[in-house]
Amino acid sequence: xxxxxxxxxxxxxxxxxxxxxxxxxxxxxDMTRDQAREAxxxxxxxxxxxxxxxxxxxxxxWKRNTPEELGAYVDxxxxxxxxTAEPEADPVDCGANYDGKGRSAIFGVAAGLxxxxxxxxxxxxxxxxVPTQKQDAYxxxxxxxxxxxxxxxxxxxxxxxxVGFGFYYQPAFNPGIDALFDxxxxxxxxxxxxxxxxxxxxxxxxxxxGSFYHLAFAKKMVRTLTNSEQSTVSRxxxxxxxxxxxxVRPGETIVAEWPVEGAxxxxxxxxxxxxxxxxxxxxxxxEDLQVEDVAEESAAITEAVLTGEREDGFADAVALNAxxxxxxxxxxxxxxxxxxxxxxxxxxxxxxxxxxxxxxF
Length: 361
What we know:
Layout: H1 13-21, H2 33-44, H3 50-63, H4 67-80, E1 92-94, H5 108-117, E2 122-126, H6 138-144, H7 153-163, E3 165-169, H8 170-173, H9 175-178, H10 181-187, H11 192-196, E4 207-212, H12 215-227, E5 235-240, E6 252-258, E7 271-276, H13 294-306, H14 313-328, H15 335-347, H16 350-360
Parallel strand pairs: 1-2, 1-4, 2-3, 4-5
Antiparallel strand pairs: 5-6, 6-7
Helix pairs in contact: 1-3, 2-4, 4-12, 5-13, 5-14, 5-15, 5-16, 6-13, 14-15
C-alpha cells in the first residue's frame, strides 16, 4: 500500500520567499506563527528542493528571525523530531552551539561533573561535527575520556540519574534535525537551525543555561522560550561565552537571568549584571585558555582538574563554570556560594568519583 503524501497549508517556501521573507533584510516581512510552523514542517518533511531551502535559510538570516518565529520552529522540532527522555532528576540543560569550538578548551564536561558532584544534575547535548564549523563539541571531549556517547535517549536519562551528569546524542534524540546535515553543510553559513537545536532540551529540564555574544541575543532567546508552547523551561541563565560556547568568557562578562522580579529586571523579568571573573578566582585572559587539539586537551584538562592534579587557570575556569550551573538551578543563592560548593566537590574527591562513574556507565 502506497504511503499517503502529507498535505501542508498554503505557504510553500517559494511563496514565503516571494511574498514575505525574500525581499531583503530591510524590506522583508516577518512570518506569522502559522507560516513559520508550516515552513519548518515542510523542511523536516523533506519537501523543499535544495535551492529553495537554501534561499529560505539565507533570507531568514538576512532579516533576522523574531522570537515568535523561533518559538514556532522550536515547537515543530519538538513535535516532529525531538525525543524527550526525562530522568528522575531535574537537571540544568546546557545548550552550547552544536558546531563547536576550535581554539579554546571546552570546560562544560568538567564543570558539569563538578556541579553534579556538588548536587546539581547537568545535561549536555551535541551532534558529531555539526555544520557549519564542524569543530569539537561535547561528544568529542567525552569520546576522548572513554565515555559512551552514541546512546539512545533513555540511556542518556539513566546516565543523569546514575551519575548526575548526562549526555544526549543528537542523531538519537533529534533525528529530523540530524537528517538536515548535508543541506546545512552545503549552506556554508549558520541558519536558524543552529539556534533552535540548542533549545532541544532532550531531558525536559526546567532550567536552561546558554551563552551569547551580545545581550540582545540572550533576551531574544528568553522571548523564544516564552513564545514556545512546547518549552518546559521556567528559568534561564545566559552569559557571554567563549567562541559562542557555554564556557564563560574571562574578564568583564555580562550575565542575563530570567525570571527576576523587582527593580533589577526589565518589563519581561530579565535582569542583567556584570561580573569580573577574576573576582571569582578566574584571573586569566582568553589566550591563556587556548589549546591546539580542543577535544584531546579538554579531556586531559578535565581529568587533571577533577583529580586535583591541576590548580591553575584552567581549574579556576572549571570551578566558575560549575558555580554558574549550580547558581542557575538555584542550588546556591549566589555565584560565590556556588563557587564554594564547586571547589569543595573537587577538594573532597567527589568530582573525580563522578568522572569514574561516568566512564563506568
